[in-house]
Amino acid sequence: MELHLKYARPNAEKDDRPIYYIGPFGSRVSFQSQQRRALNIVGSLIEMNQIEDDDEVAIIGAGLAGMTAFAALSLQGYSVKLYEKGSGILTLQALSRHRYIHPTVNFWPHANPERTTNLPFFDWYSSDCPNVIEALLRQWDEDPNEPSRKDPMDPKYIQQFTVSDPYFNHHMIFSDYDAETRKVCLVEKNSGVRAEVNLVLVTVGFGVEDNLGDLGQNPYWRDDALVDMSRQSGHDVIISGAGDGGLIDCLRFTFEGFKKGDFALDVIEALGKGSYASRENLKSIEEAAGKISNEDERAKFLERSYKSILPKLNRSTKEMLSRALVKRSSGKYANRIRLIGQYSAPFEIGAAPINRLLVAYALQENAIEFINAKLDRDGDGYFLCIDGRKEYLEKGAKVIVRHGPRKALEGFLDDEEAKKLRFAQQAPGDFASEGSFQNHYFIPERSEYPSLDRDPARFAEFRHGLAYKFILERYGALTKLGVDEQGRPEFVAYASAGLPHPPPEKIEKAPDSIFGVPLRKHIEPTKADKSAVGAP
Ligand SMILES: Cc1cc2nc3c(=O)[nH]c(=O)nc-3n(C[C@H](O)[C@H](O)[C@H](O)COP(=O)(O)OP(=O)(O)OC[C@H]3O[C@@H](n4cnc5c(N)ncnc54)[C@H](O)[C@@H]3O)c2cc1C
């Protein structure tokens, strides 16, 4: 607990201001890991007596971390205000139809690639980004389009537990701290309105992406035409940045069957059928790489190791990769794709191992080229800086810049402090995103909010809609609520007479539990099931 709080501040030993930063520097920061980090911080603040009953709390940023912390503190009865500079919750990602989001894929091989989350609130399942956002918003409010509709007889939506609605269009920055009263003063950047609080959680995410001053650059979360382009020919594509942002865009262009990222999960599943590239082998490679401090040496080590794995992949994985790769005619690929990275190889330890494995395959098959260079831009256009030489890119080239944020935590930390926070948050590895508190910790005993542990039937009923969508989308089956032999609630997945029957082996692949509720797979449709068609 102490560690969670220590890693949430740039200088915990010397600076005891009650301001905590949830991210953005932990390794492999993702939707779910930020939710867990937020829960860990809230739990630790309560357990370490760093928050008092009548404290005023401010949360800055209504992304995944901010909304989770807001829910956790509100359910505990604290007076907490959520400030968001945008016009709503999760607006950044809401329209990203081209991105696929998964709870744990970035953490594989260390974590299982689960397709559903198991959180006290704001559960979701792996899907296209807008589906994930919709799942989150539906738990926030009964009807995101009609936010005023609340049912006091059945409080299940987070908004029914909050002291105030979020303050949108509020770009908050730190103003000052009074050590005597222990009050932090925040100020709204545009209006100058001030807010004095006892505790601040800063959940402002990564910050504005670096676009090298090119307003034509498409931000990561905005829809683009990359997949359409990959089906055409003659494009010269330069993707700069070998973190997950750059690698994913490179893979979207390289693998026809990338399915926005869902393909990575299919590959993990195929690898699980036994091959040299098993989880244990990959884990040892990652651990060995973690011990190499020189980043360039580390990238070269990872390149060698991943390359050596490829010939030993099992047959089904090899076939899957070969089928999914963009086709070439007469031995040539239709488009030229160059990946630019700052080290000798595009294998940065912060990027997800599965993405690196796919890039290693694309490099082996010459579907992409890698150039160790620095991409930049001046009045004459984009250029690569290679060994001190400037090489201008052809004017018609499609350039995608994935260099990460320009400046994180602006308005809260200066560069030096941000560096310290980065150091602190990267030190503990990924531990901060692991569940340190049980889910029911966040739902007080007398709360009306459905808790899996205290009122499993109501919880299962509340999650049924989400489970139904997940099973239908992924496995082509319907889901109803049921009870097991001991009378405990369960979901039952079944083939419906009203839909084309999914093959039984497809339903079999569904997980054994969803959102913590057991799932029974009912393979053969029965007469009773025929009448049970219909969404919850
Ligand atoms: C290029 C890129 C690709 C990614 N791809 C994936 C992926 O595929 N899967 C995945 O799980 N994760 C992915 N992530 C990570 C994912 O974006 C984060 O894990 C998640 O969004 C972090 O949640 P958060 O709440 O910390 O920050 P955010 O979701 O970024 O939310 C921060 C919020 O704070 C607001 N804000 C910022 N400054 C202020 C201020 N001063 N005052 C008020 N409000 C403010 C912002 O408007 C925003 O709404 C990616 C990140 C990047 C940068």
- Give the C-alpha Rg: 24 Å
Question: Average pLDDT, to the nearest integer?
Answer: 90
Strand percentage: 15-25%
Shape: globular
Strand segment tally: 22
How would you concisely characterize the structure shown here?
By secondary structure, the chain is α/β, with parallel strands linked by helices.
Task: Tell me what you see in this structure.
There is one protein chain. This protein is α/β, with parallel strands linked by helices and 536 residues long. The chain contains 15 helices and 22 strands. The chain has helices at residues 2-6, 31-47, 64-75, 129-140, 226-230, 244-254, 262-271, 279-290, 295-309, 315-324, 353-364, 415-426, 456-475, 504-508, 527-530; strands at 19-21, 56-60, 79-83, 100-101, 127-128, 172-178, 183-188, 194-197, 199-202, 236-240, 328-329, 332-333, 336-341, 369-372, 374-378, 381-386, 389-392, 398-401, 478-483, 489-494, 513-514, 517-522. The strands form seven sheets. A four-stranded parallel beta sheet has the order 1-9-2-3, with helices on one face. Helix 8 packs antiparallel against helix 9. The two termini are 40 Å apart. The relative contact order is 0.14. It binds flavin-adenine dinucleotide. The site of flavin-adenine dinucleotide has 31 residues, from helix 2, helix 3 and strand 6.
Which characteristics define this entry?
536 residues; alpha/beta; 4-stranded parallel β-sheet; 15 helices; 22 strands; disordered C terminus; binds flavin-adenine dinucleotide
